[in-house]
Design goal:
- The structure is a homodimer.
- In chain A, helix 3 packs across helix 7.
- Chain A has 2 domains: about 70 residues, no CATH class; about 240 residues, Fumarylacetoacetase-like, C-terminal domain (Fumarylacetoacetate hydrolase, domain 2, Alpha-Beta Complex).
- In chain A, strands 1, 2, 3, 4, 5 and 13 form a 6-stranded antiparallel sheet that branches. A 6-stranded mixed sheet of chain A has the order 7-6-16-9-10-12, with helices on one face. A 4-stranded antiparallel sheet of chain A has the order 15-14-17-18, with no helix packed on it.
- Chain A is globular.
- Chain A has 7 helices and 18 strands.
- Chain A is an alpha+beta fold.
- Chains A and B meet through strand 7 of A and strand 7 of B.
Chain lengths: ~325, ~325
């Protein structure tokens, strides 16, 4: 089942979307918004699945042709966005680029930060421009959306709390982050709103590409006409989503509709490219002593998409242009 | 005007509360929840003020006697909780206790972290117990609730975005925080859900105790029968709320219903006591070489309240007991 939110008001209007993303149907009798469905997920999911089955079979008379450009983020605002850094290769590179080692405890204790979720950009929303010195960057990630997760949920129990998955462009202002992190309280001005993919999907939509912890498909990232990277999301993901959920829930319960991100997808195999600019710049620094690839400038476009093994877009594409300065 | 949320569902049921907190009236014709009112604040506030005027004059036939124990947090969940550290005395003490100086840039660039807001405890909700080594602590703070704040709003324009104020118990697990902050990504497991006061109030309820930036009243903090502290919230608050809002909005807009906290209220005048345990422990460490005051244990009670100059409770009291271990 694929779910999206048509642009409407602050929370969008929930629609069930066909597997090929071409058709949709509104479900006001089930839930007005995706958050409302997540708030009563067990009951709503059953009814939404019935609608989805009808939509696939062509038996839904209310279905309409969908232009994915009409979609906001599946959750145009959320009560929680927690972003992990599960691909330790990316973290290692960041440390090496500043001459440090990866602290060994980061192999057992996930890095994760509390991000802003009061505004989540739609897949086609422009990226606000930033001065060159702010270092505007994208980060292509996978995120899960959970139902209510009790405090102290163990990783072995956490997979069942993954009710939906989507893609994220975790927008970063690299020029502001070092000074902000040096203050010791994490990210704030360095992380303007993230964008989500057109739809969020239930795990079964991924077939055996979802093993309950990781998504075994490449995440394609384009910058303009260039394929910037296509790392395999199932490789080098040191912590699976259940471990990330368990970490987040260690001392508190998580409310329904919590988004938990994987962190920038990153493979040790360099031929796969990178899912953010700063990683390529770190590789350039290690190789040439200085970065060569510039950060995003007004007018540039970023496209993030995941295709299944048959080449079909799973979540639709995040396709954002940097607005004029 | 004072607003509260009766315990009901995930978001409570919005009520207008009388200035003396003894009576309330539901307003389903205006907005079902406080978040819904904040989403359309200008229109709703006018109508809520009419209800409040009737309630004060005794002309509201639908009013009922209120037991503040029936109130959840004014926002039982919120889309954003940003916590500043505006009382630099507290920050200075924290640094001195570990032998460091306050970096001078923290006098011009506010410390602020993105906190969890998917669950906000009600004023009487128990505090989940924590092992002694986790160091369960309270932090008494003032918070503002904003309407929509555009990206790049200057401090000089930010005061008008303060639509409500409330109190916060920013619960902290001191034993977990040093290792967590050392990871570099801010707070997560060290900050379980915060609690809010019974009501949120419009700035005019504070009279001239609100100067558009600070609240000039003492914040009373009791631990069991002991008055733990009563620092003056208007003193030693280095950054006013408009500066905190401007900092938060530097690179992104803030959605309606954003909560922004002052950080632990803290005065240089030590006779006022402290608004959190760790501050007293830092003072003890500086004076005696080691802390003497233990963190919270199961069965202990914390009470946080602000009285106006006539001795009336402005927000009602946060009164929490640590649940049995």
């Amino acid at each position: 089942m694929k779910l999206g939110s048509l642009r409407e008001g602050r929370d969008g209007r929930l629609v069930v979307v066909s597997s090929d993303l071409s058709r949709a149907t509104a479900v006001p009798d089930v839930a007005p918004t995706l958050q409302a469905a997540l708030d009563d997920w067990e009951a709503c999911a059953r009814r939404l699945r019935d609608v989805a089955a009808k939509l696939e079979s062509g038996a839904d008379g209310r279905a309409f042709d969908l232009d994915t450009r009409d979609l906001a983020a599946p959750l145009p605002r959320a009560y929680q966005w927690l972003d992990g850094s599960a691909y330790l290769h990316h973290v290692e590179l960041a440390r090496r680029a500043r001459g440090a080692e990866l602290p060994p405890e980061l192999r057992s204790d996930p890095l994760m930060y509390q991000g802003g979720s009061d505004v989540l950009l739609g897949p086609r929303d422009p990226l606000p421009p930033a001065p060159d010195s702010d270092g505007l960057d994208f980060e292509a990630e996978i995120a899960v959306i959970t139902d209510d997760v009790p405090r102290g949920t163990a990783a072995s129990e956490a997979a069942r709390h993954v009710v939906l998955l989507t893609l994220v462009n975790d927008v970063s202002l690299r020029g502001l982050i070092p000074a902000e992190l040096a203050k010791g309280f994490g990210f704030l001005v360095g992380k303007p709103p993230s964008a989500l993919a057109p739809v969020a999907v239930t795990p079964d939509e991924l077939g055996d590409a979802w093993d309950g912890a990781r998504v075994h498909l490449p995440l394609r990232v384009q910058r303009g006409a260039e394929l910037f990277g296509a790392p395999e999301a199932g490789e080098d993901m040191h912590f699976g989503f259940p471990e990330l959920i368990a970490h987040a829930a260690r001392t508190r319960r998580l409310g329904a509709g919590t988004l938990i991100g994987s962190g920038t997808v990153s493979n040790r195999d360099r031929t796969r490219g990178s899912a953010c600019i700063v990683e390529r710049r770190m590789l350039e620094t290690l190789e040439h002593g200085a970065p060569r690839t510039p950060f995003l400038r007004p007018g540039e476009r970023v496209r993030i998409e995941m295709l299944d093994r048959e080449g079909r877009s799973v979540f639709g594409a995040i396709e954002q242009e940097v607005a004029p300065g």
